Amino acid sequence: MGHPHLPTTEAAVAAVREVARAYNLEAEVTDDIGADQTSRRSSAGAFAVVDADGALPHEAFVELGGTPAVTVQVFPEDDAKITVDGVEFNDIPRDSVPAFLRSVYGGTAHVKGKRFPPGRWLVVPLPGDETYKELIARTMLSSWLVRSTRG
């Protein structure tokens, strides 16, 4: 299933704010604009503000209030890093960010454990056949992660 296209960082931030409103969460946004401010400087030269193509890259960091603790870092390269209670999901397509957050706050995201090999994974299913899984370090089991555990 396709997700609505979010062509810019600002469009992604607006979509995250919309999800936050739907779940009565506060959203604190920090914007970094310019190649000299963003964390990824793949196409800009040293001390350059714009990329080689003249574009002004825009990166945003969104911290959502509530439980679980969630942050979203939206990059100019059409992807994002989402952290849920300390578990990092890298390289999430920008268009998938709102669906990812709805899964977390809507209760479909869950922790799945295995005996062999031993470990626990945070599983975030999205509509369609898209699912994201990340290994949880033993020391990172928050109360929300424990409550979200399924057999």
SSE string, helices as H and strands as E: HEEEEEHEEEHE
Biggest sheet descriptor: 5 strands, antiparallel
Q: List the uncertain runs.
A: none
Mean pLDDT: 85
Number of strands: 9
Distance between the termini: 27 Å
Strands side by side in the biggest sheet: 1-2-3-4-5
Describe the global form: globular
By DSSP (H or I, 4+ residues per run), the number of helices equals: 3
Helix content: 10-25%
Cα Rg:
17 Å
DSSP strand content: 25-35%
Given helix and strand content, the structural type is alpha+beta
Give a quick rundown of the structure:
The chain is α+β, with helices and mostly antiparallel strands and 151 residues long. The chain contains three helices and nine strands. 28% of the residues are buried.
Please provide a written account of the structure.
With 151 residues, this protein is an alpha+beta fold. Helices cover 19% and strands 34% of the residues. It has 3 helices and 9 strands. The protein has helices spanning 9-22, 97-106, 143-147, and strands spanning 27-33, 58-64, 70-74, 79-84, 87-93, 110-114, 119-125, 131-136, 149-150. The strands form 2 sheets. A 5-stranded antiparallel beta sheet has the order 1-2-3-4-5, covered by helices on one side. A 4-stranded mixed beta sheet has the order 8-7-6-9. Helix 1 runs parallel beside helix 2. The protein is globular. The model has no long low-confidence stretch (mean pLDDT 85).
